[in-house]
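Key idea: predict the complex, not the pieces.
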Amino acid sequence: MDPGIIGQSLARIEGPLKVTGTAAYTSDHTKERVAYAVPVGSTIANGRIAALNISKAREMPGIVEIYHRGNVGALYKPSPEAGAIDEARPPFADDVIRYYGQYVALVVAETFEDATAAASVVDVVYADVAAPNVELQLVADDEPAEVSRRGDPEAAYDASPIKIDRTYITPAETHNPIELHASLATYDDDGFTLYETTQAIVNHRNVVSEILNVPRENVRIVMKFLGSGFGGKLWPWSHGTLAAAAARNLGRPVKLVVTRKQMFQTVGHRARTQQRVRMSAQRNGSLTSLRHEAVNDAGMLDEYDENCGEATPHFYGTSNLLVTGGQTRRNIGSPTAMRGPGAVPGLFATESAYDELAIELGLDPVQLRLQNEPTRDQSLDVPFSSRHYAECLTVGAEKFGWSLRSPAIGSMRKDGSILGWGMSGCSWLAARFAAEARVELHADGSARVAIGTQDIGTGTYTVLAQLVAETTGIPIGRITVELGDTRLPPGPTSGGSMVTASVIPAVLEAARAAMKSAIGLATTLERQPFKGWSPEDLNFQSGKIVARNGASGKQIDYHEVLQNASVAMVSGGGKAASTFGEEHPKRSSHSYGAHFLEIAWQPEIARLRVNRVVTVIDAGRIVNPRAALNQIEGAVVMGVGMALLEEAHYDPRTGAPINSNLADYIVATNADTPRMDVTFLDYPDTKLNELGARGVGEIGLAGMASAIASAVYHATGVRVRTLPIDIEKLL
Amino acid sequence: MNSFTFTRARTIADALRSARGDVKFLAGGTTLVDLMKLDVERPAGIIDLNALPLAEVRRTPDGGLHIGALARNSDVAHHPDVVRDYPLLSQALLSGASVQLRNMASTGGNLLQRTRCVYFRDAAMACNKRSPGSGCAAIGGFNRNLAILGTSAHCIATNPSDQNVALTALEATVHVTGSNGERSVPIGDFYLLPGQTPERETILEPGDLVTSVTLPPPAPGAGSTYVKLRDRASFEFALASAAVVVTIKGGVMQRARVAMGGIATKPWRNLDVEAALEGQPATRERFADAAQILLSDAKPQSRNGFKVELAKRCLVHALSVATAVT
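Result:
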């Protein structure tokens, strides 16, 4: 393997396509005779449809068809084994309305404008309309599930001199990538070709083929570029089903782009959570118990487990621990995974509680964490594959200047503002999904890697090219990356920050198989240097075939071999199994990190801003530091929004997500972006894959809200346990 | 969006002639087009004003300033005369929206900017302003950014503009032309309280066209500022804002003009507040007294009670900045 490409800060190889507007995102695709579909959403959240009056809409210009329960045709629930979907009920399956915005009809017209105009005059008559249950107080409907237990946390808590018992609340948040969810569906004799905004083409195919009741091989999913997903585009949503059904019924392509308002209603959100955390300690700071009991809300039909205790069992060193998770049903659209699902709201609670415990103990919060650092995963009783959390803490503290912190509330001032310094740890899982890949080496000196995964804007195109360049020595500019199409070998879902770790074994194996094929060819060619050699005596280095011992001085470019053999290409396949969700893992694999940050508080105008953030991340080997930095910085900015701004509000009377636009659902802007200083420790985790890379997509968001809450307390003396930390909580 | 006719007016007379029936004037389009997409506005026709010669910014003979109705917010904000003599207006404009929106938005359009109340902007919701008699869903709903002053049982929508708050403190005059000829209206008389008719927001009659805004000569020696408070650092409507112009002599406030935004159903000016300041020493105590008067009639809604305190801090801070009192 040629060293050097892995670890380089390369610009995105697809960047020129994006900045010149030539990258075709899902809704940029079009087809001849395409019709435009606009779904009609319910304006109640609890009741049923008594009648659907579509006669007026039918008279509108350009109408092709209006679909509803009576004429949409057969749609099925996918079997549990098909794959993941958060709203399993097919659209129009019954007349019951369970959340505001639920699709009740689909208008298809010759133009988008015609469809929109007609959709606005579809008249839905409702019956049995009842007050929606969007109650904010969360109590689990059933006995919460025990996620993890060790020791006797109840007894240890009771026996400890220092205890805290706090409840933390995180609101519903919406993903709101700039790219709206979209689907362009075509149907012909070969089946369905669906251009989808998806983070998981393979899962999408597997699930949607069952919904449409067609063979899996008759569904092709294409997604070449995604305008971000943040988890909201992981699993199929009803609009895609409707577009496919309409294309099937009409025999013509149908395009459907959901509106920004519908982005708040029908394509998931981060579940609201309510988390009780009880911690106890000895006076010296030794953590004697931790109980983390979470409840999240879910839609009326489907289970949704936010798994707030995702990081709790392994992150905290204590002999006595309990983690539970419960759910309660509400008249809301189904929640779904959002960047760092579970761990992000969970760590807001446990890291905030840790901060509160440190204050109770009179200990520095960094010291408390270092003091309770576990040496192995106490929940699984296995070693960590690679854990450098303590170094994240010490390096972060050093870079930030934490030792200069004066702990008294409001005691630090600068430029007329009160400063607050806060910190938090963070963690996120590391694992691999199953992946297959194919690598071709071409006679013109180029290479192509094909894998049915997707680049959701995070740099996967570039990482794949780097892997092939590193393995083969072929220059990165001569490598084509083909992804985003289910015709390719099945690759991993872009979720859980797992793509890079997942593709490494498969791509390396495929590249090596292709190289081996080229070597084999070289030994068969007449009048060439390696005729009759044993392949075991040859190496593929920097795009050349060379003698393994190097003594002969002979070498030949691989593409010369291919040309001389009159073959267009050699290729190889690679395949690696999943390690995700293993029942008895041998090791505990996670990424770690720490945020240290400063906020400025101006009480005279109730203005709170985040000035600077120092983040240290232990995510294994960093394949492309530039892309990785982009992920962490983006997550830090998202963390500012999560901590201070973001909340989806449901109108208590109608159940409508009411701030359903980007002016009223406020996220951090460029002007809110703090100065950021990100460090990667870069310790390879070779137990996970050969290169030792984990993932960086989500961990940067974890711990940001608790670090900001900690800093806000330091500045104001107000401990905010319900996000977001808005102005009214500080007045 | 429904089908509509589109007419480009070549002259003011042309525009007035075309303004018959269910038509809307289009300037920057940053409110109107938005509302058409949301199905809140459904005009049968659009009359595009952008070819009219109404973009000029120039001095008036009395030393004031004429701002054409089509002058873009960016152009006004960066106009040297505005920056020098009416910095308050420049600050207010630059605190609003984004660069792209300010490049499009016009002075006249901003004057008539519609509320950001989510119930007004959602055709499925009850709203007396959009659909008279349908009720006000904002009362008892998501009203965090809505008004605490000037409300009625029928409407609590906030006037969202920054520009109009500054223009109110600067005592601007709005010039209107219509079928009944030309009129000049002090900005304090231009906006209506919602009362029982929240659909009527200004004194404009159907077919009236705002042609310009004029400002009186700048108050000599006055200090001024625009303070806008909001959750994030940019691109958000005010939760509370204050435009103040204060002239001080010997530590005593001779003349004070105060207008508030983000908290009221129209750009809010309360003469009692100004009276409480004038003749008083420029101290935080006197500023706080004025803020108390300003908010004494406040009617907080279910979600916006914090605005009472926020508005007080906003005004006290603005007066402190304008008078350089720390």
